[in-house]
Each structure stands twice: as C-alpha cells, then as structure tokens.
Amino acid sequence: MTRIVDIPEAGFVLPGNRACAGCPLGIALRPITAALDGRMVLVNPASCLTVLGGMYPVSSVAVPWVNCAFPSTAATASGIAAGLRATGRADEMTVVAMAGDGGTADIGIQALSGAAERDEDLIYVCYDNEAYMNTGTQRSGSTPHGAKTTTTWKGKAENPKDVLAIIEAHNVGYVASTSAVFPDDLYDKMCTARDRRGLRYVQMNLPCPSGWGFDPKDSVRYGRMAVDAGIVVLYEVVDGEFRLTGRSAALAKSRRPATVAEYVAGQARFRGIGEADVAALQAWADERWERLVARAGL
Amino acid sequence: MSFSTVMTGNEAAATAARLARVQVVAAYPITPQSPVVETISKWVETGELPAEFVAVESEHSALSVCIGASTVGARAFTATSANGLAYMNEQVWWAAGARLPIVMCIANRAMAAPWNVLNDQQDSMSVRDAGWVQLYCRDNQEILDTTAQAFAIAERINVPVMVCYDGFLLSHTVMPVDVPSAEQVDAFLPPRPRGLQVVDPADPRNVGPVVLAAPRADAQGEMRGGYLEIRAAHQRALLSAIDVVAEVDAEWEAAAGRSWGGLVWGHLLEDADVALVAAGSLATQLTVVAERLRDQGIRAGVLGIRCYRPFPVAAVRHALAGAGLACVFDKAVSYGYEGPICSDLKAALAAAAQAPAVFGTVCGLGGRDVTVDELVDSVRASVVAHETGALERETEWLGVVR
User: Fold this and answer.
1) How many CB atoms lie within 10 A of CB A169?
2) pLDDT higher than 90, residue A13
3) Which of A99, A109, A279, B137 has the fewest CB atoms within 10 Å, counting from its CB?
C-alpha cells in the first residue's frame, strides 16, 4: 500500500476552489489526478464537484473537464471514450466520470447500467455524500436510514441501495469501495483502476459538513469513524476476487472501534434519532460488515 | 461515379452517414427510425464502415454519446423518432448549447399519448426552439443528399442539424435513389476540421461549466461573455445558416449534380394567386394538388419549406410576394394555438410590403390519410372565403369526423 507521504504532489488541483469549507472533495481530487498524472478527462454532471470546479472563465483543476447533463454522465463518458478511439487519441488520456450519489444511484443509474453492461472503457467514480447536497440536502437513494434531509424531515425510513453490488452484478472487472479521507486507499485503487480496461467502478464515501451537520474541521474524523463503525467498508473486487483493504482489512482482524451510536451522535442529520432507529442502522451495518468479512474469508 | 438503385428513406439516411464517414454512431431502436441504425450496425460489424457503434440503453444516452464523441472531435450521428426525441429533449438543448456539429435524422412520427407509430411532424416541430438547424425532406433522394449536406452545414457553423423526413411515407417507402461515389462525397465533405482541441491534457480546459449571466474576467483579466453573450453567439451562428444552407446546397450540386432549392423550393409558384405551403412529403403531394387546381382554373403553386430553422423569412416573403392567399398545411400543432409553420409564416409576412392572407390547416396527424381530393376541396373553400373578403380564418382540422 502506498504511504500517504509517497502520493505524488502532482499539482493538478489548484489552490483555492468554490467547494464548501471542509469538503473532502479537495482532498480526494489530489490522489485521483495524481494516479492518472493528469492524463485524464473528467466527465462531471451537475453536482458539488461542478461547484468546486468554479465558474466560467476560471477553473480550479488543471485537467481536461467536460461538464454534462445530470442523467448522462456514463453515456457522455462512453461517447468521449468512443470519440477518442475513433480519432486515434485513446492512448492520450483515461476517461474518468465523476458524479455524486444522486447522479449515480438515482438519475444516472440507467446510463451507468448501460455503460457497465457494455463494459465501456472508463473509470466511474461515485462520490457518495449520501444526499443531494448541491441542491440543499434532499434525500437520495444513498441516504442512510434515520438521516434527516430536506425531503425526509423525520429521518429517512429506508436503507440506502447498494450501488456497489448493483454494478458488480453487471460483471465488470473492477469494483472498489473507498473513502475520500483515506487518500492512500483511494490512490491505490485509482492506480489499479488506471491499469485496467473496461468499466471500473469506484465508490467513494465523502463526509459533508453542511449536509451532515458537523464542524468543517471534523470531515476526516467522521470519514474515519464511518469506516471504524463499519458503515463504510473499504474493499475491492478484482475480476471477482474480493478483498478488504486498508483500515477495513485491519479492523477485520480486531474489532470495530466505533459504534453507530457514536458515529451518529455528533451529526445534526441524526439529531433526535430514536434508539430503535440507531439499532436498525447498527443492524444494517453489522449484517453487511459480517457478510463482507466472511466474503473476504476472514 | 454515382450509381442508381432503389432504397427506403431510412436506407438513404444510413447511406449518407456512411458516405460522410461518420466516426461514432449511437443507436436506440424506435419505429420508424430503427432500420437506420440497424443498417449502420451491420456496416460497422462487416467493416464496411470503420466507426464506433454504441448500442445504448435509451435515446437520452444516444444523444449523450454523440455529445461526448463530438466534444472530442469525432463526427457523430444518430437517428430517432417521436417519443425517442422527446426522451432526449434535455440533450437536444445540450448539443445545441454546447455548439456540437452532430447530425441527427428524425423519421417523423406522432407523439403519444395515445400510442401511434405513424407519421406527422409533431416530434421535430416541438423542438424547433432548441437551437438546431432543421431541414425537411420531400423524397428519399433528398434524404440522402440532405443528410450528407447536414454534416457540412453543422461543421461550418458549429450548430447541430436535424434532418427530418416523414415516417413510413418516406422512411419505409422504396424509391429510386442516385448514390454518389465515395470520391464525390469526399471532395464535398473533408474530414471534420480539427479546430480548437477542447479536450487535451496538454492544454486543460473546463468545457461547459457554470456561466454567470453577465460577462466576467478570466485569470488574465480579459472579459469573457456571460450566458447572454454565449446565447447571442449561438443565435448568430444559427441565423448564419440562412446563407450556409444555400451555399452548401450549391456545393453539393457541383459535387453530386443535384440541388434542392436551399432554404425553400417552389412549384408553379411564379404566377400563383394561391400558394400552398408545407414541409416534407406533404409538400410533394401539394404539387399534384396545385396542378389539379390549375386545371380547375385556380392559379395555384407550392412553396416547400426545406429549412424550417432558421426560418427563411426573406425567402418566404420573396416567394409569396405575388400571391393573394397562402394556404398552410401543418402536420403538427402548437396546442392551444395553431400549426407552427402557419404561425411562423404569419409572423414573417406581418411587415412585408406585399403579402398574402394566411389560412392554416392541420392535417394528417397520427398518419391520417390526406388525399389530393381533400386538399383540393380545402383550398377551394379557402379561395371562396378569401374572395368574399375573409383575411383570416380559424385553423381547419382537415377530415375530422365530429
């Protein structure tokens, strides 16, 4: 595993951007662009990342960036990949689509499913901040049970959909779950993805200070706690071979150092959550954790 | 050299895309368009057409693929109809706003609900405002020629072009077609100009980001246009098609020996008192109607609208200057008002020095048969009303059983 100090300081993410204070997108873009060494085209629908990029005629990231319509990310990226092949430029850059959880789990899932079934030659990164944060924190298919949003005022009743499993069921060669606050884990996965062909799906947990309701200085803390509580599990599936990675791999051999109750305690989106809902969220996390640990053969 | 054969309108569209050496084709099936992409799919599989064929999961994705491919400089093509066009509506606007020279054929079909797979022009007329050039074809030869021309028009002004032709009436009807040789088309249509490479890691740009309403300084302090300036530039480009469509039609004549009148075409129009106006195959049918009316002592002629967007204001004013009455036949409606060609024609003639009265008729919706006899009777009734002093009348719905 690459040590965090060994991730190249590539300089593609320029100083200063329009993201909210504490948004870990700025952390995540460094290892992503470093892994590709800037030889990439970022395909991005309307989302928080659009905001980070800035408004015409200035940009905060020095890699080619193509904005696209909300439902169209995977299809636009497919077209860019096809266009690069057709014009003999496929070797010049990797197509990296990057959409939020709403743009992936909800409005973009049809195009993503099509691209995955066709095994398009692109990396698709879903940055999962667990609601429509750019439009003001509305629930998405990825919002956890119990979380209050501006369309679930009493807390969301349902569990999130497992998009990682959905994409894996398309028989793509690479599926990875990572977190923006583990740049080493993210960097390694982007490097693995970079060296493969076909559709590569990377889902990246992204704590959101404004949407989750915590102090912007605590983004890394909550991102780590999500992994420690087993709500986010770091893993990858390479040609069907499953393995836990990074901190999740380490935790599988000990015990999880945080509970769901501790994780939700400091977040405004869970304020007032009942014990039964915490228990339900814990049960959901436990079931998945045990299933994934068992799958890893541990 | 060219060769003569017979083919359907869909085959003519596919043949033109092949002759244009399209590089990326995205496809999703919908009747009556499907044979266009089926045919291209076969050519790509056999190697007859060296192109990327992307069989997507929806029309929204079909146009998205074209948008992505065109953004990186590939010549991109797709085709659709009716609900498929409606489903990709967001991307119809995106392709135009992003100024991508995509060519899309529309086998015109009625919009649901209720379901109907047959012809009218409601689908493409409903996206007339999206910023594409729209060309309407009267027969299969014109479909082939216009589709080839569309790439030249699109790439000259960086505006996408829709080539519209009537579903089934043309898409599935076999007609004689002269197919130009690859050499003829290559001479007419060079590879897509490389122009500014907007996606290049050596010169990274953010393509299509959020734009404020007002101009704003870039990192060097130079002012760049806001949303309003960008849209105004798009409108200027689209209006420039008034010249470019005619120019390209003339170049095609030099290369392939045929032209189609540029923006509009006429039949027996020079001395006509009554002008019959329509787009597509209906206008061809109106040539028979005009001849019949002349036999009956009414000096009728036909004005065919080939280029509907941009609307050829000067050309229609000039063409109709001598007529007393224009009878417009629309295969579409702006619900709550009237036929779209009728509205546009009235607006175009409003300030003209010499202009006919304009009577609108809606006909043929959902593939309803429109007969020469019905059209003759409709025009005769309009002539009588006009002679008795009427300068306007309510839109007639031809053949509606009440």
Assistant:
1) 12
2) yes
3) A279
